[in-house]
Design goal:
There is one protein chain. This protein has 183 residues and is an alpha/beta fold. The chain has a single domain, classed as Uracil-DNA Glycosylase, subunit E. It is built from seven helices and seven strands. The strands form two sheets. The chain has a four-stranded parallel sheet with strand order 3-2-6-7. Strands 1-4-5 form a three-stranded antiparallel sheet, covered by helices on one side. The longest helix has 12 residues.
Length: 183
């Protein structure tokens, strides 16, 4: 099924169509037109959905990393504004999907609807690099998103997930990899 003019076609069996769980919808992008870096997660987790904020889980290292790299601190609105000042945009690959809980592994891919990246890039023409917050976000983008010729050429980089579920890498190592990509 084509999704929002940007996803590849997939065949869905009758069995796959009956997935238990409520559909989760993502948030609009945090971005200014002059953004040069786009950070993409997969889909907001339960804590983020409840708070109406990207990366709201207290153990998620995203905002701590952004504070170390850009000085983003204070309220959620102030942190988002700091990202925009540093020409960093924030969004998710998915506009919606069924996902019981918050684990990316639980996303029901046959229900996944990608965001409209062609429209996004038509507005945010200065994006040079797309950084994926974890391998799953990168894999979903590759699987679901079809960019047209007007989207331009960009660098893609998969970064270590900031999720508390990804504990095999130290904070210092995550920070170093994020610093190389964002700086």
């Amino acid at each position: 099924m084509a999704t929002r003019g940007s996803a590849k076609e997939t065949n869905i069996s009758a069995e796959q169509q009956e997935t238990p769980g409520a559909s989760s919808a993502g948030f609009p992008p945090v971005a200014r037109e002059d953004a040069r870096i786009l950070i993409l997660g997969s889909l907001p987790g339960q804590r983020s959905l409840q708070a109406g904020q990207y990366y709201a889980h207290p153990q998620n290292a995203f905002w701590r990393i952004m504070q170390d790299l850009t000085g983003a601190s204070g309220t959620y609105e102030q942190r988002c504004a700091a990202l925009c000042e540093h020409r960093i945009a924030l969004w998710d690959v998915l506009a919606s999907s069924v996902r019981p809980g918050s684990m990316d592994a639980d996303i029901a891919m046959h229900t996944a609807e990608a965001n409209d990246f062609n429209r996004f890039f038509s507005i945010h023409r200065r994006i040079e690099r797309i950084c994926f917050n974890g391998r799953k976000a990168g894999d979903m983008f590759q699987r679901l998103v079809v960019l047209d010729e007007t989207a331009g050429t960009r660098q893609f980089e998969i970064l270590p997930s900031t999720s508390p579920a990804y504990a095999s890498m130290t904070y210092a190592d995550k920070l170093a990899k994020w610093r190389r990509a964002i700086a």
